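Fig. S4 source data, part A: sequence.
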Amino acid sequence: MIILTPAEISALLQEDLPYLDLSTEFLGIGRQKGVLSVHAREATLLAGVEPAAQILGQFGAEVLDCLPSGSTISPGDLVLSAVGTAYELHGAWKIVAGLLSYSSGIAQRAQHWQQRVQRVSAQVIVVGTRKHFPGIRRLAIAAAAVGGVYPHRLGLSESILLFRQHSNFLGGLAGLHEQLQERPPATRTAIPIIVELEMGHSKLADARQFAQRGVAGLQFDKFPADLLHDWAMALRAEYPHLKLFAAGGIDDGNLEDYANTGVDALVSSAIYYATPADFAIDIRPTEKK
């Protein structure tokens, strides 16, 4: 579950309602009381409902029904309902629809991937990258977490992940080896260091050297599953505490192949590019007594 900040709510409202709702104003129905109801059109894992409820509340509507994120829903299930004026309900309508559809799609795909991987090996998990459409990170991460996929890395400030783009400034992998050797041991334990090795730019000897330098983990980018399996077995035998990650090129067609390589985690952004879940949203006037 995620709670939106006032600034995030303001940004969402500003994007869809920068001035006024011309359609509702044109019809003169803005002050009429109404009810908004959201029903599932398909079976899915629900996510994004709490921020959707926040949006309705920000507009001034009163939320009546609200299933929690993580609920498994079936076609026809009532997910969310609220009462308010036509102006409030129509103002929140499309924002609510987008939050529920995209968040639930991500959650469903994340859960599906995690389950597929776990059926191959209970020791392997799927983790999410920080590669998603700019501006949606908090929502995307929260949705993936509903499906059991947690972030590999939240941002640049909380972990050390060294890429070829870093070692280029040190003269390549050899320069990076020297840099790590010069660092005091405490630096390597206080903040875990992970080094990424790219297919075509590194050898198994490089992996062994970094493991000897005391890095916490190695990430293998775009390695074929069969080659990665061989490297993982060799490294496991020599460095049993070393964490191994597979990244790059993992998709629906090869997920099980990578789950069977012997790494600890599969790092992917594919979970964020899921098909949105389908919901039916109805807005109608309340019955007059």
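Fig. S4 source data, part B ends here. The first strand starts at residue 33 and ends at 40.
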